[in-house]
Design a protein that fits this description.
Distance between the termini: 57 Å
CATH class of the largest domain: Alpha Beta
CATH superfamily of the largest domain: CDP-glycerol glycerophosphotransferase, N-terminal domain
Largest sheet: 7 strands, mixed
CATH topology of the largest domain: Rossmann fold
Number of helices: 22
Structural class: alpha/beta
Strand order of the largest sheet: 1-7-6-2-3-5-4
Number of domains: 3
CATH architecture of the largest domain: 3-Layer(aba) Sandwich
Strand content: 15-25%
Length: 518
């Protein structure tokens, strides 16, 4: 079934009577957006598969309850605002309901505008106030760093490589924060000084640390105490590409409709940093300063720690990698084989990407066998991918799946060709000088539904664009079998645009800049 999408709320009929399907963050965020942009729309309530009660002051109907209580002529549309839209669409169709639309993703953080002021809310406010007072009183250890990884504290990304750099400095006290017990136990085996966020002693570590270094935006939700720490906060972030982020995702017309109090509340929801790391003057000025709402003097183009790996071996770089696949790839490369890594990005609405729909595994594997190539699929840490290959791993021996939760950069060091769709990983790979092939197999859907692009896709992607599997094979043959290229100057142009430094000293520059903070 094709997805019927409403891109802008202006497309709704005047005075339409609607239900919003989804009483979670996305539904609440869309509710607020809809109220601001189309006050003429009559919202009748919310529908949810599991929840009931009230949301944003309206009744939440479980689907079975809604189905019994309302007929088609009682409302005009159901607007789906949920990442589980596939399941919801199927449910509606099975029950003979076809007057529904999927709304284009609107920033779910708008949901804070309609937070319920229940007892838990006030307890959190009181707790936050007390923590702030304690944080002010606690002395700070000027040699202490707390490093925070994304997705519960996974040991990957810029945070990982900056931690490894700091660890070599014997005068520093460096800790890795994680919220998952499984990570905590695993990291101890790797001689990583890990702190379990759920332990009482971690609370005091957070309060007396001088510097907190992050590379993600989910830390405020995962580690509430960090938000009230008076430590210097350094944001490394996790990529530069062409997609809109932060404030750049919010349309200007919507911002104009906010009250002064609402606009100030929106600004407070976006944390401020003492230092924001970028990779070039272009990205500092055009992307990160406006996206984070920060003054340009706090946005420094010093480079990404993870890219140092392309210029030197880093002690500990193979920690938290897919050891089995990486070991096989290294041996395969040493024997004269070629390596392809396919790294698709995630979709904001988590639509499942069925690999069978974009690859012919039989033809791909035959091609790989004939030319001594392995094809390694590395999904985003938050993918909804249906590989459909695990069951036939013996049949497709030259196609491998890399654990999507593990660090892929040691593999990229030896990769001959990178294939991606919209992931910013390609900019990092440019440091190798090797070719990049783009496979935007769902371009219209991605740009219509998932993420708006800040820059022109073709302008920012220095390599050929394969429109289908046949073209993909032809370009792989071009690069790895025939040994041709032709895109060197394009890659050099984007490399120079995206990176001020190409020397492998990013961690050192960042550390020196941090030491200058007052």
């Amino acid at each position: 079934m094709s997805i019927r999408i409403i891109k802008e709320v202006d497309e709704l009929s005047k005075g339409a009577r609607v239900f919003i399907y989804g009483a979670g963050a996305a539904g609440k965020g869309f509710f607020f957006y809809l109220c601001k942009m189309r006050p003429d729309i009559k919202i009748l309530g919310f529908i949810d598969t599991y929840k009931k009660g009230k949301c944003c002051g309206y009744k939440v109907y479980r689907f079975n309850e809604f189905f019994k209580a309302f007929k088609k002529n009682d409302y005009d549309l159901i607007l789906i605002a949920s990442m589980f839209h596939d399941e919801i669409s199927e449910l509606l169709m099975r029950n003979g309901i076809d007057n529904f639309l999927l709304v284009k993703w609107k920033n779910p953080t708008f949901n804070f505008f309609v937070e319920s002021k229940d007892l838990c809310y006030f307890l959190k406010r009181i707790t936050s106030f007390l923590i702030k007072i304690i944080a002010w009183l606690f002395p700070k250890n000027k040699n202490k760093f707390l490093i925070v990884g994304e997705y519960g504290g996974n040991f990957v990304g810029n945070s990982k490589y900056f931690y490894l750099y700091l660890k070599r400095n014997k005068n520093l006290e460096v800790y890795w924060l994680t919220g998952k017990k499984s990570y905590y136990e695993r990291f101890k085996k790797f001689d990583i000084k890990a702190l379990n966020y759920k332990k009482i002693k971690t609370f005091f570590h957070i309060l007396n640390t001088k510097y907190v270094v992050l590379d993600n935006r989910d830390w405020r939700k995962s580690y509430l105490i960090l938000d009230h720490s008076k430590a210097k906060k350094i944001q490394l972030w996790h990529g530069v590409g062409f997609k809109s982020i932060g404030f750049l995702l919010i349309d200007k017309d919507f911002l104009k409709r906010l009250t002064k109090e609402e606009f100030q509340a929106l600004k407070k929801r976006n944390p401020s940093y003492d230092l924001l790391i970028t990779t070039s003057d272009f990205y500092s000025e055009k992307v990160f300063a406006p996206a984070f709402g920060m003054p340009i003097e706090k946005v420094k183009p010093l480079g990404y720690p993870r890219n140092d790996i392309f210029y030197r071996d880093i002690p500990g770089e193979e920690i938290n990698t897919d050891e089995k696949v990486l070991k096989f790839a290294k041996a395969f490369k040493k024997s004269g084989g070629k390596i392809i890594v396919f790294a698709p990005t995630f979709r904001d609405l988590n639509i499942k990407v069925d690999m069978r729909s974009i690859f012919n595994y039989e033809k791909l594997n035959s091609f790989l066998l004939a030319h001594n190539i392995i094809f390694i699929i590395k999904g985003h840490p938050l993918p909804y991918i249906k590989y459909e290959i695990e069951k036939a791993v013996d049949l497709y021996k030259n196609i491998l799946i890399y654990d999507n939760s593990k660090d892929v950069y040691p593999l990229l060091k030896i990769t001959d060709l990178l294939i991606t769709d919209y992931s910013s990983i390609y900019t990092d790979f440019l440091h190798t000088g090797r070719p990049v092939l783009f496979y935007p197999f769902d371009y219209e859907e991605y740009t219509d539904l998932h993420r708006q692009l800040q820059f022109d896709y073709n302008e920012m992607t220095p390599g050929p664009k394969a429109k289908n599997f046949g073209e993909l094979l032809n370009w792989i043959n071009h690069f790895l079998v025939e040994g041709k290229d032709g895109f060197e100057s394009e890659r050099e142009r984007i490399l120079n645009l995206a990176f001020k430094y190409k020397d492998g000293n990013s961690s050192q520059r960042i550390f020196e800049e941090i030491m200058e903070l007052r």
